Amino acid sequence: MSYMDQFYGQVERVGVVPVVVLDDVKGADPLAHALVEGGLPMAEVTFRTPEAADVIHTMAEKDPDIMVGAGTVLTVDQCKRAVDAGAKFIVSPGHTMEVVDYCLEHEIPQIPAGVTPTEVTVLVNKGLEVTKFFPAGQFGGLATIDALASVFVGHRFMPTGGVNASNLKEYLSDPAIIAAGGTWMVKPKMVHAGDFDQIFKLTREAAQIVREIKD
């Protein structure tokens, strides 16, 4: 099994990848604990704040049961910083070939994004079998994903942006969807307020939907 096949399997088993935006490293450890206990032991920590690398390092070091990756990775420098901090995978809201090629060269699991046939074609020709579909809501959601999947047979998508508790089941029921990304269970205001009980509750509810679909 290749490193990418192993990674894809992990993503599919989790079913929902929480997308984390944290500007205070103090929340990293309890957040990781809430996600693991709630049943979603994976996090995409976005490079939207100066603390992103420290958050990745803390989550990966404090809770070895969570698989921590980096999101909103736009440059090779960010990719290097993320991996040095402990990130196990890279996610981008679009894609640049510099980052895609760097990850391929160094065997770093990645999910770059593509929302048009041209973009998906480029990534498929790089040997990638999964692309992020972002922002899903604004680009037509499942209707667009199914149209792409009918052409790119066997290719799968991870929709993010507009996915929430009310439509998660619909997304995950589609065979073209490997998993979904979402922020609703890890909103920054909940972390800032220290409301990890609510994060745990929302995480558990999302994990239950995953189990209903996949079991």
Apparent shape: globular
Element-by-element helix/strand order? HEHEHEHEHEHEHEHEHH
* Oligomeric organization of the protein chains: single chain
CATH H-tier superfamily: Aldolase class I
The CATH class assignment is Alpha Beta
- The whole-number mean of residue pLDDT values reads 97
Head-to-tail CA distance between termini: 23 Å
Largest sheet: 4 strands, parallel
Classification by helices and strands: alpha/beta
Number of domains: 1
CATH architecture: Alpha-Beta Barrel
Q: What name is given to the CATH topology? A: TIM Barrel
Strand order of the largest sheet: 3-2-1-8
Number of continuous helical runs? 10
Poorly predicted regions are: none
Tell me what you see in this structure.
With 215 residues, the protein is an alpha/beta fold. It has ten helices and eight strands. A four-stranded parallel beta sheet has the order 3-2-1-8. Helix 3 (52-62) links the parallel strand 2 and strand 3 (67-71). Helix 2 (28-38) packs across helix 3, helix 2 (28-38) packs parallel to helix 10 and helix 3 (52-62) runs parallel beside helix 4 (76-85). The two termini are 23 Å apart.
What does the secondary structure layout of this molecule look like, with pairings?
Blueprint: H1 3-14, E1 16-20, H2 28-38, E2 42-46, H3 52-62, E3 67-71, H4 76-85, E4 90-91, H5 97-105, E5 110-111, H6 117-124, E6 130-133, H7 141-151, E7 156-159, H8 168-172, E8 180-182, H9 188-192, H10 196-214
Parallel strand pairs: 1-2, 1-8, 2-3, 4-5, 6-7
Helix pairs in contact: 2-3, 2-10, 3-4
